[in-house]
Amino acid sequence: MKFVDEYRNREAAQQLAGMIAGLTTKPWTIMEVCGGQTHTILKSGLQDLLPPLIHLVHGPGCPVCVTPLELIDKAVAIAMRPEVIFSSFGDMLRVPGSTNSLLDAKAKGAEIRIVYSPLDALKLARANPGRQVVFFAVGFETTAPANAMAVWQASREGLENFSILVAHVLVPPAMEAILSSDDCRVQAFLAAGHVCAVMGYREYEPIAARFHTPIVVTGFEPVDLLEGIYLAVAQLERGEARVENQYTRSVSRDGNRLAQERIAEVFEVGPRQWRGIGEIPASGLRLTTPYRRFDAELRFQLDIGRVPEPPDCISGQVLQGLRKPPECPAFGKQCTPERPMGAPMVSSEGACAAYYLYEISTSMSGANHR
After folding, report:
1. Looking at the DSSP assignment, which residues form a beta bridge with residue 87?
2. Any idea which architecture 65-170+255-300 has in CATH?
3. Do the Cβ atoms of 168 and 137 come closer than 8 Å?
């Protein structure tokens, strides 16, 4: 735990908070992109350490949170087919579609397996040659190499009973969409360190220049985040806008070239619908022509149109940093982790789940203690 505790050190965190306070002369709004960062901020009470002029807002969070309703509906429709074994990471099972979740489908008899890697789904395909095995390939760029490798391996082995339902989204186009909005109030970004560990941060440099917005690649521990905020505030106060790398222990400018090559072979960039936000051009991945036969949407020929969000759910505004979860009239009432209306309340990295866990639960615990 030595190397983890180093980035959770209370004295180091307080020192950084003091340095941020010493720098800050104006109000600044900073968005962290990753839901893992959001959870650390709330769990560690980092906002309370910061000067009142620093306002943190929460971004797209996680790919689970932005997977559109119609794609969940497609997943459920595929999973209900008798010839299918549907496999997915566990956090996708409770995400609500328009009428059902994958967990509901499982309760109705669909064969749905929780796996920990797409390679586990490949094992299922090898072991069940008479069944169609589908893997729900959800993720930012972080999980794209493993999903690409699974498809590449299936092609190499001739596993024609394996396919993936692609829900990959890309971070830089989402940042551009947020910055292009007339309602945008984000003045700096804390970029997700795990995404940059794969992709590097070259593609963020044009964004910082075009929108004159500092972008700091940041880790996930309290000291990481405070140092990222310090670097962002320092740029803002000086009127600078460039990409900086706080997460040097894991991230380089070029990223993992071998992983990028495998992604580029198996996937290509295309438009993608984001839940609560809408379609963002060139913001998703789809299979390239040589691997398109492994596309579950094409294999099962599903025709499901756009599905509107529940009218009481403001997850789209939460994901764009326009409002915070407690501002939603359904938050903690009609919408809870047990009865979620939107994906940000389901996902382990969702902003709504983080606020529910660390604000409502903590306040209730304190009230019970009193």
Report:
1. 113, 135
2. 3-Layer(aba) Sandwich (3.40)
3. yes
Give the C-alpha separation, 19 to 17, whole Å: 5
Task: Provide the whole-model pTM.
Answer: 0.89
Distance CA 239, CA 104 (A): 52
Q: Which helix (H) or strand (E) holds 63?
A: helix 63-66
Which residue from 58, 33, 70 is spatially nearest to 309, judged by alpha carbons? 70
And the tokens for 72? 């969940």
Each domain of the chain, given as residue ranges in start order, spans 65-170+255-300
Instruction: Output b/e per residue, 60-79; b: 16+ Cβ within 10 A.
Output: bbbbbbbbbbbbbbbbbbbb
Q: For the beta carbon of residue 248, count every other beta carbon within 10 angstroms.
A: 11
At 24, list the tokens. Answer: 């800050």
Q: Which residues pair with 134 in a beta bridge?
A: 86, 163
Per-residue confidence (pLDDT) for residue 300, from 0 to 100: 94
- Residue 370's pLDDT band, with cuts at 50, 70 and 90, is very low
